[in-house]
Please model this.
Amino acid sequence: MSTGSGAHSAPAPNSHDDTVSDDATAPGTAPAAAAGPAATPRKGTFSSLRIRNYRLFATGQMVSNTGTWMQRIAQDWLVLSLTGSSTAVGITTALQFLPMLLFGLYGGVIADRFAKRKLLLLTQSAMGVTGLALAALTLSGQVQVWHVYLTAFVLGLVTVLDNPARQAFVSEMVGQDELRNAVSLNSANFQSARLIGPAVAGVLITAFGSGWAFLFNGLSFIAPLTGLLMMRTAELHKVDRVPRNKGQLREGLRYVSGRPDLIWPIVLVGFIGTFGFNFPIWLTAFVHHVYHQGAGTYSLFNGLMAAGSLIGALLAARRTSSRLRLVVGAAMLFGALEIAAALAPSFWVFAALLVLIGTVGLTINVTANSSIQMATDPAMRGRVMSLFMMVFVGGTPLGAPLVGWITDTFGPRIGFMAGGVVSLAAALLIGLILARVGGLRLKIDLRRGHQHLAFVPRTPGDAQSAERDLAPAA
Model:
């Protein structure tokens, strides 16, 4: 985007050896010795905030993320109030993410072609308009459920461009050295807002109605727009934009399909995003049908999950490497925790488990996100991240109505348990696949003082590569 003072340290297209994390190697490619944890000194939890452009970005996102969470809570509760149906909440969620499923990859192609800062000025403005439109309908007393459906779908269309542009723009602000830290802080930022937004939304909904939450969300986008306009473009790390050409979408898919360290984490995140992250459906159903409470309890549950997610994000910011075995292990634990929450015998046991689910769920997202970004050629990053976001949130239109139907038909506990069972099964299966790709096998040792379950090299000659490979920690 510029050739100024930040351009000399810009991330350049690297070989796989230069970018891949220490525990994922492509077939036939020797692992890079510099990729291990020792090559990345610990810089501190908030090191990327030393960069002015990123500080502006993070500040604006904090304000708009708070508004986004307020709108999410208000939107879910408004739909439930209008219809009394968990399926309707699922349909709303599905419509918001359907555009990502249909057009997500094209959004990545566009993000690679155009200046990301200018794209974000357009998308953030459009998101603000959708919030103001829903506020006007609700405050005027004219809102109907189809208005919410339509607004959710339009917001999803904007997100198709906003998500890959925002994800890829992080590397232009901070460079490759601070990318992992900035990705983690982005998640911490989002989860901090998740603590504030639902609490404020609960008060506004109870006292004045959902419309004021929508209004705040619409106005909150002034902050990120101001931050983008105040950035020093000369300090952005220059990434050459991809010229318009035929076959760029297929090129991105071929790039990912030939990289086990990219494709399998994306597949795993897709299963978890489709079936394991339907919390608007489950939490509204538990509040309404199991605990017979109101919007304040729904906000409390979201706040507890946000607290856990914030802890997970801050822990991730301190890590100096992104191991794929951590993604798989966290996914297994995530599924088990959802099953436990579905069977929780009391309100406070359920609430405590939500904190743990938030921590582990965020660990999956941040670790997969940063490992994929670090392993991807900058010229392909928009397309790869659009695929990542497409399967993570784009699967919701498939999973949310199904999970909503299961929840309505068989009850909230069965609905929540179903999501946990699918997440756990997917993690186990993909963990075995990744172990096989890495030339590993499962070893069982029941002796006292020994690790009972572990992945070890199939042959002694695989020992060196297996140390960096994809084996999930048992």
Remarks:
- The first strand starts at residue 440 and ends at 444.
